[in-house]
């Protein structure tokens, strides 16, 4: 027995004899047929895991999916408590559920949980592994169980070559480690009617266009100021405003009237013409159309505090360059990835927004950013496709089709 195996054995002896404080976990009975259990370390990975699970259920409705950790609710997917690693009762209950496949995200390892799954015959898949240490909540007097825990996984998908080298240096077999990309929330792109898109595109062809998506009432004045500033250099520029909700729409409509701007009120059946300065659109349900028409978009909820911003991947997935304010804490990882790729840019106020719009609304500038965003989205979708194929192959091999 190797030192690594001994380190994991020592941890398991400690974990299975422990009694974690708090209320005992309560899981549903194991369903008949195939069971896939996913574990999310943080909110961003939880959204990505929930999207992957939704696609799996759509492809294989006979498969039951349980998700634990920081995951949103999704139809057809059961959310269950995250087992405690230092609880003999939780680990024994976990073993009795015997999931067929487990999807694990992030760096933080739970050796007791993962070893219990492995011993129960579960196929283990790790996602979103970074070039960073693998923390384990273990007493300092125990030998580090992380290397032996990583060796339990059947497949490990990393965020790139550097992360893969780190995993291999810890002793994981090379053929189990796969260079990949960030694990992203890859929802299907927002839809829109083809005929309507073609009609509106013909009406506004040749005009510089930008979009303010999911705009809050408190941001409207800054957006209109930025539009006036940018329009000094591009007199035919058109701003499309998609309010976040009905209350924001009423406020923005009143503001536009007070500013005496030439407005096309989409909800009242108006159509834009050469003199339109602002197209006041309907709610978020029509964003599939506006993202396709506007090469550049400001994402609302980011110039004010308290909202956390909006998911930028829905815009990037439709080839839109992205501007955003500093308050995007709920989606910080997503924005950071797009900024690193050159697909998004932060603005601090109305002045910097106007300057950015003037520069980036040019077709070549917006196209470069949009292409970078599409690369991020498409690489994430390819990873999801690979993982789904592996899950389905495992289930087929076990006769659980």
How does this model look, in words?
This protein has 401 residues and is an alpha/beta fold. The chain has two domains: 3-19 and 31-183, 3-Deoxy-D-manno-octulosonic-acid transferase, N-terminal domain (Rossmann fold), CATH 3.40.50.11720; 194-377, Glycogen Phosphorylase B (Rossmann fold), CATH 3.40.50. It has helices at residues 3-16, 43-59, 88-97, 111-119, 146-150, 161-169, 194-203, 220-231, 246-259, 287-293, 313-316, 332-341, 350-360, 363-397; strands spanning 35-40, 64-69, 78-79, 101-105, 123-129, 155-158, 177-179, 209-215, 238-243, 263-265, 278-280, 296-299, 321-324, 344-346. It has a seven-stranded parallel beta sheet, with helices on both faces. The chain has a seven-stranded parallel beta sheet with strand order 10-11-9-8-12-13-14, sandwiched between helices. Helix 8 (220-231) crosses helix 13 (350-360). The two termini are 37 Å apart.
């Amino acid at each position: 027995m190797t030192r690594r195996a001994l380190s994991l054995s020592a941890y398991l002896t400690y974990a299975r004899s422990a009694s974690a404080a708090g209320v005992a976990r309560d899981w549903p009975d194991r369903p008949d047929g195939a069971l896939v259990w996913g574990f999310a370390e943080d909110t961003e990975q939880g959204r990505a895991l929930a999207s992957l699970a939704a696609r799996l259920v759509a492809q294989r409705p006979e498969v039951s999916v349980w998700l634990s950790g920081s995951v949103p609710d999704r139809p057809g997917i059961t959310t269950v408590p995250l087992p405690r690693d230092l609880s003999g009762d939780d680990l024994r209950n976990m073993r009795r559920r015997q999931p067929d496949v487990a999807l694990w995200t992030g760096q933080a390892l739970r050796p007791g949980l993962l070893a219990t799954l492995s011993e129960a015959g579960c196929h283990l898949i790790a996602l979103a592994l970074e070039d960073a240490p693998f923390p384990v909540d273990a007493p300092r007097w125990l030998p580090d169980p992380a290397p032996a825990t990583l060796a339990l996984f059947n497949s490990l998908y990393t965020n790139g070559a550097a992360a893969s080298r780190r995993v291999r240096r810890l002793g994981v077999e090379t053929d189990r480690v796969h260079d990949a990309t960030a694990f992203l929330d890859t929802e299907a792109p927002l839809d829109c009617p083809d005929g309507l898109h073609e009609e509106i595109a013909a009406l506004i062809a040749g005009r510089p266009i930008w979009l303010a998506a999911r705009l809050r009432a408190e941001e409207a004045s800054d957006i209109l100021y930025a539009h006036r500033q940018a329009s000094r250099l591009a007199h035919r520029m058109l701003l499309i405003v998609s309010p976040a909700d009905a209350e924001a729409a009423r406020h923005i409509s009143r503001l536009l009237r007070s500013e005496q701007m030439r407005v096309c009120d989409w909800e009242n059946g108006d159509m834009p013409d050469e003199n339109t300065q602002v197209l006041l659109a309907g709610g978020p349900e029509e964003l599939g159309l506006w993202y396709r028409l506007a090469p550049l978009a400001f994402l609302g909820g980011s110039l004010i505090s308290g909202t956390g911003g909006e998911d930028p991947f829905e815009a990037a997935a439709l080839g839109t360059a992205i501007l955003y304010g500093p308050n995007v804490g709920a989606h910080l990882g997503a924005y950071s990835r797009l900024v690193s790729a050159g697909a998004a840019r932060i603005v601090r106020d109305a002045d910097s927004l106007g300057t950015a719009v003037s520069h980036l609304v040019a077709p070549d500038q917006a196209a470069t950013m949009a292409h970078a965003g599409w690369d991020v989205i498409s690489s994430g979708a390819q990873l999801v496709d690979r993982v789904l194929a592996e899950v389905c192959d495992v289930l087929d091999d076990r006769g659980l089709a």
